[in-house]
Amino acid sequence: MNVLLVRDVRVVDALGEWRGDVAIQDGVFAALGRGFSWPGALVLEGEGRTLLPAFVDLHAHFRDPGFPEKEDLLTGSWAAAHGGFTAVSVMANTLPPCDSPEVARYVREKAQALGLVEVYPVGAVTQGLSGQKLADLRALAPLVWAFSDDGKGVERTDLMLEAMRLAAALGKRVLVHPEFSGVERALGEELMVARDLYLARLTGARLHLQHLSSPGSVELVRKAKAEGVPATAEVTPHHLCLAQEVYGDYPVNPPLPREPARRALVEALKTGVFDAVATDHAPHTPENKAQGAPGISGIETAFPLLYTRLVREGVITLAELSRWLSLGPATIMGLRKGLVRVGYDGDCVLVEEDENFLLDETFFFSKGKNTPLLGMRLFGRIWATIHRGEVIYLEGLLRGRDYDDHRQVVRKG
User: HEC states along the chain?
Assistant: First the structure.
């Protein structure tokens, strides 16, 4: 019996908050209360810090296989743990793409061997992400949780219709990068959102719309949800917090919004159009970025950015942020995570809300340092990350890199 007792914390999740102690036994939350003891337990003293359910990322790029100079499953897992994430959905645009059982199995087995965070591969919709012929979705289905040609929209309606019908039959979700080529970006996004919402209505497939950035798309999703279309949607931290007027044309896809659009995205978050905030973690080398590669290395900065810009400024509450970073994405993925409740996976983060830091390149465990946030002062430092009762990150130290056994960083009670 393995027990970790986290003492003296302010617990906040999507359903509320309270103060006390949390016990994790054999990987799940086993007891919640005040002042209880558990003989033989390992003890982590929270010392009044805030404990949240660990975060779940619906949308990240760990670049493995194929692009080890940008990221790999080890450094991506380090970055996730540092950012407070214990479950990460990784996209299919690797090299080779995740369009075969062999690639999906490689991602799953390598991540499991690392033993840090849970990594869930997404299978490609089309072979080679070409948009021309469906991948073998039936063969991929046992190894992936969803299908997506992320990085590209599937422009052929006949293929997308067939993919949605198959996904519905297989019980898998379809994730959509909404973009038609050859038209203005916002219009291309809205056209694909409208088409795929219609196809979801027609087929009953569970649709998830990735990194929406257009207020027009938001209204399409709002209306479709009201009509019962089985659709969910995500928005990124950078689209919620960073506007072109301040950060210019920093390369990211979709582009950073103008301030009125940014405010519309925040309002859509607050009114329930978005089900989750996802990082779209996209690490690049300095050379790639200098050549204009779009993307932000964002899995480590997601919480402090959102906390600084939205929670501290009174736009949303910390409980609401927990809903969108933890419970919402966990629900979409079918995971028993996202709440600090007995029986849920014992995944949590301890945060120092009032601790602030000046972001520079030394902050990152990811290979990617590409972000427009360098030089920004952020609040809400992640102090510890716990995955199924195992301390995988604590105060700058990572399990498997700086120590091998979580018992080295906690004490016997």
Answer: CCEEEEEEEEEEECCEEEEEEEEEECCEEEEEECCCCCCCCEEEECCCCEEEECEEEEEECCCCCCCCCCCCHHHHHHHHHHHCEEEEEECCCCCCCCCCHHHHHHHHHHHHHHCCCEEEECECCEHHHCCCCECCHHHHHHHCCEECCCCCCCCCHHHHHHHHHHHHHHCCEEEECCCCCCCCHHHHHHHHHHHHHHHHHHHCCCEEECCCCCHHHHHHHHHHHHCCCCEEEEECHHHHHCCHHHHCCCCCCCCCCCHHHHHHHHHHHHCCCCCEECCCECCCCHHHHHCCCCCECCCCCHHHHHHHHHHCCCCCCHHHHHHHHHHHHHHHHCCCCCCCCCCCECCEEEEEEEEEEECCHHHCCCCCCCCCCCCCEEEEEEEEEEECCEEEEECCEEECCCECCHHHCCEEC
* Residue 1 confidence class, pLDDT cut points 50, 70, 90: low
pLDDT, mean of residues 185-193:
97
Report pTM: 0.98
> In Å, how far are 41, 205, 224, 254 from 273, measured between CA atoms?
42, 19, 10, 18
Active site residue 280: yes
The string of pLDDT tens digits covering residues 156-174 is 999 999 999 999 999 999 9
Which domains does the chain show, CATH number per domain?
Answer: 3-52+345-412 (2.30.40.10), 55-333 (3.20.20.140)
* C-alpha of 349 from chain center: 15
Contact 378, 305 (CB under 8 A): yes
Q: Exactly one of 21, 149, 196, 280 is catalytic; which is it?
A: 280
Task: Please name the residues in contact with 207: beta carbons below 8 A apart, sequence gap of 6 or more.
Answer: 164, 173, 174, 176, 196, 197, 199, 200, 229, 230, 231, 232
- Per residue in 251-309, pLDDT tens? 999 999 999 999 999 999 999 999 999 999 999 999 999 999 999 999 999 999 999 99
